[in-house]
Design brief:
It is built from five helices and seven strands, in the order ααββαββαβαββ. With about 200 residues, the protein is α+β, with helices and mostly antiparallel strands. The chain is globular, with a radius of gyration of 18 Å.
């Protein structure tokens, strides 16, 4: 049985090189092009990126493979959530697997992406499920019977911002936190940046 105690601490060995290649090629770059086209046609933009894009980005960044064999958490050891700045992070539970998923949510890490202004800034915070137990336990205690069409709940942005560990900040596609040394500098990106 794997030692799960290491997953109670935030990830520290972040792979910026590989994950930023994905971010620029499939998230940030394409969105900038779409935003220019939408603006030229006076059409309001919809969602910035798909939830699966955030999952792939997170998977590459924290080196945690996905588990999409059915219902459950997004990655092997982490749930991935994203929201526009100030928005709550939505959790949805399904009729047959919801209670099991809620119990699992209390035992894994949660990666919270906050983005705004066309992904010009992205923050990533981490909380372990035990730190979110007040939400999950209440949702479990209030689990509906009979089950409605959907059971959706949310964790407030303010809670994540106040209690989460900041792992990363991107500004205009570049890492501004943590400060990277020349050895760990990402090679992907539209502009070159000097590192100390």
């Amino acid at each position: 049985m794997p030692d799960r105690s290491k997953f109670v601490l935030p990830p520290t060995n972040l792979d910026f090189e590989k994950s930023l290649m994905f971010f620029h090629a499939y998230m940030y770059g394409p969105l900038q092009g779409k935003l220019r086209l939408y603006g030229a046609r006076s059409i309001p933009p919809g969602a910035a990126v798909m939830s699966s894009d955030w999952e792939v980005f997170a998977s590459m960044l924290v080196n945690d493979l996905g588990r999409k064999l059915g219902a459950g958490i997004d990655l092997a050891n982490n749930e991935v959530k994203s929201a526009k700045q100030g928005g709550s992070y939505e959790y949805q539970y399904h009729k047959n697997t919801g209670k099991e998923k809620l119990a699992k949510d209390m035992t894994v890490g949660h990666l919270f992406f906050e983005y705004f202004d066309g992904l010009s800034e992205v923050n990533l915070r981490w909380l372990h499920g035990s730190m979110l137990r007040e939400f999950f336990q209440k949702w479990l205690d209030d689990y509906p019977d009979p089950y409605p069409q959907r059971y959706r709940k949310g964790i407030p942005y303010s809670f994540v911002r106040a209690n989460g560990t900041l792992l990363m900040t991107l500004r205009d596609g570049e890492v501004v936190f943590p400060e990277l040394s020349a050895q760990s500098a990402p090679t992907a990106g539209p502009t070159k940046r000097k590192f100390k």
